[in-house]
């Protein structure tokens, strides 16, 4: 089974991701991977299958998702290091504290939310269910979507919906929320979804999407401070990545992709790395047919340079 390479649960852009790693690493090399967003463990499984001598650091901020990924990877338990943490926490000291020596050769981040969260988590991620408005991805507490909707002032709500959701009906949606708050508490995802649906005229609903999609996206980003973690985390992981290593990031909306693009570009300056994707790789027709949720995915890849002898001599002189 270990040598078979099969997609599981629609791991987004799995063919391209494995191919990029195979273009740099020999199959039988002892590689250390870091999957910073374990999710259902699909991408990790593919990497462990494709590189039989590899080991993998399995990270997720959500203990439920980490457990699910570990269960899927039970045949590889001797080759994985499961850690409940946000990828933005990873630095050399973090790795040392968790008994991991050396730097990861391959790093993967899939910034999308899992199907499990949308359909089964019961935390209000989906506008199709009537669940408590929570939206927290970790179990460590913090502000919930319910807190945001019911306590944030008009200006703050407007900023979130407009900037994080790029919602052009922001003004009317916020007015409706404030009006509703005067009479009753908004505590469930279904209530919020209905409110947004009533505000946006049906002829302006996005084709193929629920009209509350952008509002729910914006709330999730705010609750989990996702853009901040990407900004901090990608920067730190580029430093942690071993020389000659490869880092791949899948994003699902323009804000995530813009941050990744800029950080990769800045890091690649002065020859520190090579951008392997001048433009992001997107799913082909075959993948979008079998997995429509992948249609907005964008993959960016960067290959870290190996210091030359001259560079190493200069470093030694500086010390």
UniProtKB/TrEMBL annotation:
- Function of the protein: Specifically methylates the N4 position of cytidine in position 1402 (C1402) of 16S rRNA.
Question: In terms of domain of life, where is this protein from?
Answer: Bacteria
The organism of origin for this protein: Leptospira semungkisensis
* Lineage, broadest ranks: Bacteria, Pseudomonadati, Spirochaetota, Spirochaetia, Leptospirales
For the keyword S-adenosyl-L-methionine, the answer is yes
Q: Give the protein name, as stated in the record.
A: Ribosomal RNA small subunit methyltransferase H
Keyword terms of this UniProt record: Cytoplasm, Methyltransferase, rRNA processing, S-adenosyl-L-methionine, Transferase
A single Gene Ontology MF term assigned here is:
rRNA (cytosine-N4-)-methyltransferase activity
List the InterPro entries. Answer: RsmH, SAM-dep_MeTrfase_MraW_recog, SAM-dependent_MTases_sf
